[in-house]
Design goal:
2 copies of one chain form a homodimer.
Chain A lengths: L13 E4 L16 H10 L1 E4 L5 H16 L1 H5 L3 E3 L6 E5 L1 H4 L1 H7 L2 H11 L3 E11 L7 E4 L1 H7 L8 E7 L11 E2 L6 E4 L8 H5 L10 H11 L11 E5 L4 E3 L8 E10 L34
Antiparallel strand pairs in A: 1-9, 2-10, 3-4, 4-5, 5-12, 6-11, 7-10, 7-12, 8-11
Chain lengths: 298, 298
């Protein structure tokens, strides 16, 4: 089999070069201009301060609150519950559960940008809401999404983009997304074999697919750390392989976002490269690769 | 007895006004000018970007490393060990253990500022080093130092100043000290009786003397949050009652500081206001109130 990004096989971590382009489309293929495409290629992310309007935002926030309060939702397999507080931390596959969020994932502007970055039609690999409460919001440790999506879901190439729609302000203090800009150009092969049904534990606290200290130190020395901040309604696109994480949130300001992973229709998953059965489809779509159809832009 | 700042007595939190001045000295009493004194009075803190020189810093960092590596130090009662990692998180009473750090606590510039802010001679109520490692550095939840120093150590009035000397850079990302500027003008009475020998647990994870969510929300709405950043060698003075805390640190950049608490010689501790025996003298000096003598300034 053709594993271009092996990980979790060797007793020592390895850093290798990325073997795929970062930007797969060109200037004429979508709304991003040359400077934006170059920024994304060099840094692995792109932030828009106000891509979602205030009236739309209110609808998404109301939907989020309704989902958080719904006991059936909290009991669902798609829900990740905070072990200490019992609060809902994440909910997967929201585009199937909520018509409002299904509409957001097909937002013409978001999809146009995803198509341009990936240079093809796109489908939805994953959707979720993340809720980091105030006061006791937990950290997310550093990781490359692609490492897991490749090893545990079988996605072959780096031709995916994540899109985080902030429903609350991101300040420097409330545990914002931290990115190591440029880290998407390298691949950190992690140490440790994948346990069976790893996702049951890893969604709460990841133990495998975690980059080692020395590699992270190297990345931060070479590239530094950035944390895009902005008001509610800001949107960050980031490459599937950019190293990112977030600190705890002790401020009273919660952080909520809706998170979509767009994948190129030319990059659909194979068998997981870790050799185990694939994760459930609510975490990684494996059947429906229908290109997203956007509504006509208003 | 005359408890002007009761806490931990009532079933509900209470917010009351501060009953002591913030700045006790005047412009002629030390190196701070009128703008600096006003800033400290209004915000409850004051940061100096480069108060400690690079050559001095190296000596303090070397001392810190030596203390961290010393197994006898790790076994000492004055040491606080991280439960998960086994790493040294804090070490108290460093001015007695280390000649180098004893010299730092009597640094002419630091003591002159403390004297001016407190309007009297000062003595050392507490000294410690804090070490927040990279990657897995733990958060410190919000607290007013004075609430604990009053309830558990018996310090009667808000006439104390903390001084944090940064031995490593403070960035927005490595879990810097966060301050709610202006919060020192109010006193948050906390809920929950003090357990006996509370300090044994509270130095690791505080459960009593913790401000409630609603009060914190109010403070942040009224005052916001600030996190002074700066290079190694920067120094922050902050009022004993200003609400402060810090997030976790997943960056590779450790955060180390030396921390001195200067108290006015007119504000020496009485019996603890919680009614229990006082904490050990390595946390709160109860016998030696000799005013700090500074070396002659070079």
């Amino acid at each position: 089999d053709d594993d271009r990004y092996p990980s979790r096989f060797w007793p020592e971590p390895r850093i290798t070069e990325r073997r795929d382009p970062v930007v797969h489309g060109g200037v004429g293929d979508g709304p991003l201009d040359e400077a934006e495409l170059r920024f994304y290629r060099d840094n692995g992310y792109l932030t828009f301060e106000q891509l979602i309007g205030a009236d739309e935002l209110d609808a998404y926030l109301a939907e989020l609150d309704a989902l958080r309060r719904d006991e059936a939702v909290r009991q669902a397999a798609e829900a990740v519950i905070e072990p200490d507080s019992g609060e809902l931390r994440s909910l997967f596959e929201v585009h199937k559960r909520s018509a409002v969020l299904r509409r957001l994932c097909a937002h013409p502007r978001l999809v146009a940008i995803a198509r341009q970055l990936l240079g093809s039609e796109v489908y939805l690999h994953q959707s979720r809401i993340n809720y980091k409460g105030g006061f006791r919001g937990k950290e997310f440790y550093w990781h490359s999404d692609f490492e897991t999506w490749h090893m545990e879901d079988g996605v072959p190439a780096m031709r995916m983009v994540s899109c985080s729609v902030s429903l609350t302000p991101n300040t420097p203090h409330n545990g914002p997304l931290m990115i190591i800009p440029g880290s998407h150009q390298r691949y950190i092969s992690c140490v440790g074999a994948t346990p069976e049904a790893h996702y049951l534990a890893s969604l709460r606290r990841q133990e495998v697919g975690v980059p080692d200290d020395a590699s992270l130190k190297q990345l931060v020395e070479d590239f530094g750390i950035l944390a895009p901040t902005g008001p509610a309604g800001s949107v960050t696109f980031f490459d599937c392989n950019v190293m990112h994480g977030s600190s705890s949130n002790i401020t009273p300001l919660p952080r909520s976002n809706v998170f979509f992973v767009y994948n190129s229709v030319h990059n659909t998953p194979a068998a997981p490269f870790c050799g185990l059965p694939p994760r459930p489809s609510f975490i990684a779509e494996r059947q429906d690769f229908t290109p997203i159809q956007t509504e006509v832009s208003p």
